[in-house]
Amino acid sequence: CWLAVGYEPKVSIECASSASILYAAAAAANGLSSAFVPTVSAGILLQDGLNCKAFLHGLPRNRSEDAENWFELDEHKQSLAPNLPPGLPAPVDWEVKQAVFVKSSSDVADLPSPIGPEFAFIGHSNVGKSSIVNLLTLNPNLAKCSKKPGRTKTINHYLINRKWLMVDCPGYGDAIASREQRLAWHEFTKEYFLSRRTLAHIFLLIDASRDPSPIDFDAAVWLAQDSHRPWSIIYTKLDCRVGIQHPLDNMHYFNNMVDELTRVKPAYVPTSARKGIGREALLKYISSLRQQFRMPLVFK
Length: 300
Known about the structure:
alpha/beta; 8 helices
């Protein structure tokens, strides 16, 4: 496949996931130019410059609404509703009354002692993980936010209501960090996902304001096939728009592509930290997941 596409990989072919090879093949078929350099760690592909197209699913992606507050229009309110699994327990005690920073860890051996169920946030650098923590806790200063991608380099635990924890994980795809740093962060995050017994759920954050990148799809494929953890999607920055595509089109495009690649239809919650969209829905969803969580006695 690499030969047909015309790329010269800088690592062995075994490093490329099947999904990633599909991206490269589709790029060639669509006449796209790309500097595609796979450097795989934890099933997550690090790459630059590949412009994704709807090559597996013919989706209309041509909305033209330019209103700044398009998400307040009645016609879009249903589209901003969360898509959650059926049969969830009714949420109880979902509001955040207390949020305390616990610890930053740069190694699995340095993680805090288990306290309660943990809900991890992972996503591309600058996707808004820290902003989501601050949105849910209504504390703009709890997690440090930065316009500079890749600020979060540690796994940060926040104790909520003395019962459960939000976990802000390092972002992937940071072009500023060295390759060695990126690989170290991803191995650390992967080990945390695979070994932490109190990890109840993983939330993959996707920036809806721009086209999803192949590395986002690779993260979704790894979560669906290799993490052995329940996971969902949080769409961020629904109030923004970068490029020609509408945030709702980017959101539906990613949903359909993940379904094509994994045969999984993950739950998702649309959000905007700046406008407060999705806060109550996400907290209620976490409340229901907390009630379902049972810490495994034996872990794979």
